[in-house]
């Protein structure tokens, strides 16, 4: 039975992503206190795969996940899941909204309700927790007057319900169409086969900081007709001002144009960390120029072999 890890506790959006990928009865689902702990367990072999958040449509990339994927032993992304995000403000039964002085939640969740907070609880202090469901569980576990770090939690409706909290306000996200993208990560092994609607994730490290360095990397993608879907810079943590680039793009490593682009990046970059090719959650096929199709590349390779007399 596959052992899946996820950013817990129960009731996180990450658990919803894992349940959407595989129902609880089809594997062991094990909660972890942080993305780092889940990925460490995966590297150690105590779980077989981990579901982790990587990108939110409002707040952008999840740095903790990108950094954990870029460090230590390489891991592979084998799938992705999109989860619509809905937040509630929850508190212990009997709490009046006017009595709320502090609110606990995950940093990405706070970023998505900031406008609502300014409009409705402008004086409330923010207390960071490791997850939205962790904020709800922490609130439920404490009773009045025992020094709880916060008076209310921002979490998913299911986390408020599971923890017996009262919902003081529903749908408090500033953007009603917010979506978080999660990736299922495994130890490197057999890559999922191409489906025609795939994505590839890489991290590129440059030789040195110089004019046109990023352009040189991007040219490899543009020249091979590849559409990027995410580009983020992360500090390499070695020297101030030194960055690597976390990139998602359309296509699969076994597509001719992607293979050529990866070889190009390998030539011009100091290191390319290949994090996997996997089916897109939305099933949307890449729009590929006729000049960047597999047939076009194979025809050109044949032409070269012919003129070399091979
Ligand atoms: O705290 C949770 O419930 C999570 O699953 C983490 C997380 C995130 O890292 O972005 C996931 C979705 C929401 O955007 C807010 C928090």
Automatic annotation (TrEMBL):
The lineage of its organism: Bacteria, Bacillati, Actinomycetota, Actinomycetes, Micrococcales. The keyword Signal does not apply. CDD domains: ACT_CM-PDT, PBP2_Aa-PDT_like. Residues 202-279 form the ACT domain. The record marks 180 as: Essential for prephenate dehydratase activity. Keywords: Amino-acid biosynthesis, Aromatic amino acid biosynthesis, Lyase, Phenylalanine biosynthesis. It comes from the Bacteria. This is Prephenate dehydratase. It holds the Pfam family ACT. GO terms for cellular component: cytoplasm. GO terms for biological process: L-phenylalanine biosynthetic process. Signal peptide: none annotated. Pathway: Amino-acid biosynthesis; L-phenylalanine biosynthesis; phenylpyruvate from prephenate: step 1/1. GO terms for molecular function: prephenate dehydratase activity. PROSITE patterns: ACT, PREPHENATE_DEHYDR_2, PREPHENATE_DEHYDR_3. InterPro entries: ACT-like_dom_sf, ACT_dom, Chor_mutase/pphenate_deHydtase, Preph_deHydtase, Preph_deHydtase_CS. PANTHER family: PREPHENATE DEHYDRATASE P PROTEIN (PTHR21022), PREPHENATE DEHYDRATASE-RELATED (PTHR21022:SF19). It catalyses: prephenate + H(+) = 3-phenylpyruvate + CO2 + H2O. Residues 3-187 form the Prephenate dehydratase domain. Its EC number is 4.2.1.51.
């Amino acid at each position: 039975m596959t052992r899946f890890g996820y950013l817990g506790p129960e009731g996180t959006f990450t658990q919803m992503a894992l349940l959407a990928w595989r129902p609880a009865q089809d594997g062991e689902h094990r909660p972890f206190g942080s993305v780092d702990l889940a990925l460490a367990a995966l590297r150690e072999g105590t779980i077989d795969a981990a579901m982790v958040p990587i990108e939110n449509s409002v707040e952008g990339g999840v740095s903790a996940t990108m950094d954990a994927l870029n460090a230590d032993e390489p891991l592979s992304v084998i799938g992705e899941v999109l989860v619509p995000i809905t937040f509630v403000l929850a508190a212990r039964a009997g709490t009046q909204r006017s009595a709320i002085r502090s609110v606990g939640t995950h940093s990405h969740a706070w970023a998505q309700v900031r406008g609502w907070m300014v409009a409705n609880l402008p004086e409330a202090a923010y207390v960071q927790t490791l997850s939205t469901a962790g904020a709800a569980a922490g609130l439920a576990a404490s009773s009045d007057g025992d020094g709880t770090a916060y008076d209310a939690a921002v979490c998913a409706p299911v986390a408020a319900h599971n923890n017996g909290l009262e919902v003081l306000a529903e749908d408090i996200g500033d953007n009603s169409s917010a979506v978080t993208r999660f990736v299922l990560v495994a130890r490197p092994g057999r890559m999922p086969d191409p489906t025609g609607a795939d994505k590839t994730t890489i991290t590129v490290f440059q030789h040195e900081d110089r004019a046109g360095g990023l352009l040189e990397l991007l040219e490899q993608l543009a020249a091979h007709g590849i559409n990027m879907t995410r580009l983020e810079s992360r500090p390499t943590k070695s020297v101030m001002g030194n960055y690597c680039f976390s990139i998602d793009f359309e296509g699969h490593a076994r597509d001719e144009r992607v293979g050529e682009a990866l070889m190009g990046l390998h030539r011009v970059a100091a290191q390319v960390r290949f994090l996997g090719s996997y089916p897109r959650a939305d099933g949307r096929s890449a729009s590929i120029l006729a000049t960047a199709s597999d047939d076009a590349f194979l025809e050109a390779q044949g032409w070269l072999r012919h003129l070399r007399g091979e």
